[in-house]
Amino acid sequence: MMLSFFFPVCVIVLIVCFYSTTSSFPVPFFSSLSLFIIYLLFVCSYHGRPSMTAEYGVKVVHDLSMHYLFLCFILFMTGTPNALALFPLVSPDVYLVAGELMKTSPAIASSLAKPMKWIARKMYGTDDYNRVGSGILQFNCMAEIGLGITSMFEMLTPKRNVIGCVILWQFLRTRYMLMDDMKRSFTQLNQTITGYIGKIPIIGGVWKLIQKGGAWMTKMPEPGAKPGGLASKCTVM
Questions:
Q1: Exposure check for the chain: N or C terminus, fewer CB within 10 A?
Q2: Average pLDDT value for residue range 25-51
Q3: Nearest-angstrom CA–CA distance, 15 and 90
């Protein structure tokens, strides 16, 4: 319970430092490292000490905390601030804290309800606590895809990080193969883009090639068939 309250507060403070600094002191480096440590504590609090065993892997493979532990590691490695990271790293735990406050401190929850409900309606289309959870997960998936897209655009700038971009997209690929929320987000994005550019000559053809490449990269092996290609490398990271 204490960790549930401690976590989002630390994340918010660290991200404020992460994006507000203009000094030469490597605050982004230490902020990302701190986020990594916090998520590691979060994973350990649920699943115990990490171990390189199949049993432990089965327990954590679908855990969002483990997924975002890897995302923190990627941000730590690249050292490039991106405000889109704020959504997946903070909002799920703010949601959990809100639920705890409604149970343990209804007076505090009531005082915070009005601004938080307004934000929820604007961002997720509902302020009902039982329904907003799915909206948060879907919105966060879009934010993660946005991280991947911005990393590709950064390839055209002096701040490019080729290895970071590749690892981030491997992370998104793995998230797609493991989580239905990410599948729905990519499907929604694909349908939206196809509606705009699908019938444009040349551009539409290039987009179809991208679609085929994406389908090949995320293809799962047939039951009983020997895995091959990229599908054989479907791991958490």
A1: N
A2: 72
A3: 10
pLDDT for the residue 236 = 43
CA-based nearest residue to 10, from 32, 20, 23: 32
Instruction: Tell me what pLDDT residue 59 has.
Output: 84
- What does the pLDDT read at residue 1? 47
Q: Give dist(CA 113, CA 106) in Å, integer.
A: 10
The predicted structure's pLDDT at residue 24: 45
95-107 mean pLDDT = 81
Q: Please tell me what DSSP assigns to residue 53.
A: S
Report the alpha-carbon distance of residue 144 to residue 148 in Å, rounded: 7
Do residues 4 and 93 make contact, with C-beta atoms less than 8 angstroms apart?
A: yes
Rounded-to-integer distance, Cα 88 and Cα 95, Å: 11
Q: What pLDDT does residue 110 have? A: 85
Q: Which residue has the tokens 């991200």?
A: 15
The residue count for the chain:
237
Distance CA 40, CA 29 (A): 17
Are the CB atoms for 221 and 227 separated by under 8 Å? yes
pLDDT at 237: 45
Name the pLDDT band for 16 (thresholds 50, 70, 90).
low
Tokens representing 164 are 């970071």
Domain coordinates of the chain in residue numbers?
Answer: 2-182
Contact 80, 154 (CB under 8 A): yes
3-state secondary structure 88-123: HHHHHHHHHHHHHHHHHCHHHHHHHHHHHHHHHHHH
Residue 7: CB atoms within 10 Å = 24
